Amino acid sequence: MTIPAEFQVVVLAAGKGSRMLEITSGQPKCLLPIGPKSLIWYTLRKLQKAGFAEAIMIVLESQKAEIQSAIDSEIENNSLNIKIDYVSILEDKDDLGTADSLRLRDVHEKLKSDVLVVSCDLVSDVDLGGVLNIFRKHNASVATLMFPTQQSEAVVVPGPKSKYKPEKDLIGIDEQTNRLVFLASASDFESEVSLPLSLLKKHTSIKMYSSLIDSHIYVLKNWVIQYLKSENSFMSLKGELIPYIVKKQLSKPQKPINTNTSIINTKNDKDIFSFAKEDDLEMIIRETSSYNDHKGDLKPAYHGDTIRCYAYIAPKGSVGVRVNTLPAFWSVNGKIQEIWDKVTGGTTLLKKSPKATINSNQVDDKCIIWDGVTLNEKTSFKNCIVGTNSTVNSFSRVFNSIVMNNVTIKEKVALENCIVCDSAVIENGCKLKNCIIGNSHLVPEESEHTNEVLTEALMHF
């Protein structure tokens, strides 16, 4: 007899990074460099630390081999120890939303337990035990992890000068019970937000937040997965499915009409309450116990709700960054050495790979050099990241920049405050400041650019 796992994990890694296509076009978002590791490493490391030994990962078919190779390399060097079951999405289906991904046959049929859904783009020091335990404690339908807004200093992001307006959510949480009772995008409202009177009567200690960040970590009861399979109108978890389930907490199952006709075949298979059924024994135990989750009225525990949603707010001072925008990518790389011990649990930070060839004697201690890098003599490096198999030739200098994988920088090149994407080539004598050089882009000799995005890919956005 095989005992099913308490939770199964689904990692969402098929996104194209639509909010930062300047650096994700032509390369997997989940493999973007964050300090000495790829972005996906931080998610998998956190799952591993929480005790998970395996996960289902949803990726684009065109990126599967590259992602699998990168993760296999981390497993081989004992940096990771987690088994990945890859599920591919064909390129012609890359417009699928996060809810659509869970509805895929190759995913849905594998999910037999309650499900922990995580995004590939989170860098955090928060233990997943907090959100898992609040889910367990209340036998919840949904539990989410929220972060207080991170206080960050203004940073100069490479590329054209522009203002980035962060998205904001309106989140209502009952402070007495941690019930998540309201969830919507702030952009859906102009000036006022109206809450149903029935909600205010039922939850008398609601606190509304506009400064919480949704981590895109969700714990879902298995019935939610089954309901999602039956209802194909939901594309997004965060924008559609989760708000819908949160709202449904106010409703009650419809009682069948008492008629002489048979009701055997009148059940609506898409009614959410036909999926959200609790175990009879658990309900009897709760009804006969003195436990109650709230004060101020004589209503039973959970007000008799069969659908229950909860929010776990990370402690103040926690690190929680979703690397889904260019400013977030640039900012987290700028402080990764500062937060490294917190987000990795004390993993040794290897700044200079022993598999790199470093002939330069001007590499400061803020630099991170990956495997296979060649830094020729008479070069200078300050506060920069140089990715796998990249080469920097003599008389060049790289200051405060991120150089990704397989990049070639020729002689007498000056880079300052730049992002250079995979397989780019920068010819002799170029001077680039505050620029983004796109995937596989060739910068001609003696070029000079400031505050520009140099890539053909932008023409196809």
Mind sketching the topology for me?
Elements: E1 7-12, H1 21-24, E2 33-34, E3 37-38, H2 39-49, E4 54-60, H3 61-76, E5 83-89, H4 98-103, H5 105-108, E6 114-119, E7 122-124, H6 129-138, E8 142-148, E9 169-174, E10 180-185, H7 197-202, E11 206-209, E12 212-220, H8 222-230, H9 237-248, H10 280-288, E13 309-313, E14 320-322, H11 326-334, H12 336-344, E15 357-358, E16 368-369, E17 374-375, E18 380-382, E19 385-386, E20 391-392, E21 397-399, E22 402-403, E23 408-409, E24 414-416, E25 419-420, E26 425-426, E27 431-433, E28 436-437, E29 442-443, E30 448-450, E31 453-454
Parallel strand pairs: 1-4, 1-6, 4-5, 8-13, 15-17, 16-19, 17-20, 18-21, 19-22, 20-23, 21-24, 22-25, 23-26, 24-27, 25-28, 26-29, 27-30, 28-31
Antiparallel strand pairs: 2-3, 6-12, 7-14, 8-12, 9-10, 9-11
Quick gist of this model?
This protein has 461 residues and is α/β, with parallel strands linked by helices. Helices cover 23% and strands 24% of the residues.
Account of the protein in words:
With 461 residues, the protein is an alpha/beta fold. It has a 7-stranded mixed sheet, with helices on both faces. The protein has a 6-stranded parallel sheet with strand order 15-17-20-23-26-29, with no helix packed on it.
